[in-house]
Amino acid sequence: MTAQATAPLTVLGIETSCDDTAAAVLRVGDGVEILSSKVTSQVAEHADFGGVVPEIAARAHAVRLPDLAAAALAEAGVAPGALDLIAATAGPGLIGGVMSGFTFAKGLSLSAGVPLMPVNHLAGHALSVELSGHVPFPYLLLLVSGGHTQLLVVEDAVTFRRLGTTIDDAAGEAFDKTAKLLGLDGAGGPAIEKLAVNGDAARYDMPRPLLGRPGCDFSFSGMKTAIRQHVEEADIARDAADIAASFQAAAVAHLISRTARAMEMAGEARHLVAAGGVAANTLLRAELEALAAGEGWQLVVPPLKFCTDNAAMIALAGARQYLHLGPEAMGDVMRLAPRARWPLDEREADVTLGSGRKGRKA
Question: Is pTM beyond 0.70 here?
Fold first, then answer.
């Protein structure tokens, strides 16, 4: 791995992969200093539609990002021309949103004369653990978010070895769909967790996905079907908390069982990192802590505000990858097309970045 620079880089990060518009300024060298971090949510814009509407999200990013980036730079006390690097999400995600952010980043890069680093959104989550302190490579990553559920060995800032992924729904998607079936408002993960506090997790039988299947892949579609059946048969006013608790317990148990299997396949890794929005779940954190302790591993989870989508992780990942690869490896970034799908482990993909063809599900 290329040695870290002695002089830190001042980096603007931009994240627009889904429904959060984010900008942050970091100073990255031997350590990481967060100079500013701004995130605005689009929950209100999508509330009437039961989910994120891609076209609305893309327009909201385009409208909000210029002022948000200016505010992040102002709070950090950094002029655009004083930046050493701009790092922006180039995929995967809702393509309209990714295009909004990456196009803005291209324009700022050209006008300010600052290099632009395209960042895989998943790499942002994978490397975000450094926002809470140094963790030596390699480490095992459980990435659990609204769009992705994967187990990867993070070898260095640019090398990721995928051990398992979801074959259908992501964990966060399953939480969101369960919350919708139960008629809950707001983000699915926090809503389910809050409701489950007063529920009986043993009341409802839930499927055990991929039981006996080798490997570390995940499946949540069967849980979604079971929840729908339970909701149809239940008195929601009376039983919702029990359904939420039963689902949460089953989902967490599935995540833990596959993570335990991945730990056996992770080689020299002895640190377990959990990242992504679902990593904020209290029960999951407690079970991961117990699993790691039982195996003599150390669990590390980024601060809660950096588990969900944010631009600090994009700035950090961009800086680390820029330092690792060098500017000569970036190619013609201005001709680069954002991607809706971009597997973090490129060995699992059939295409390379910018080919214009779809790769496998990230």
Answer: yes
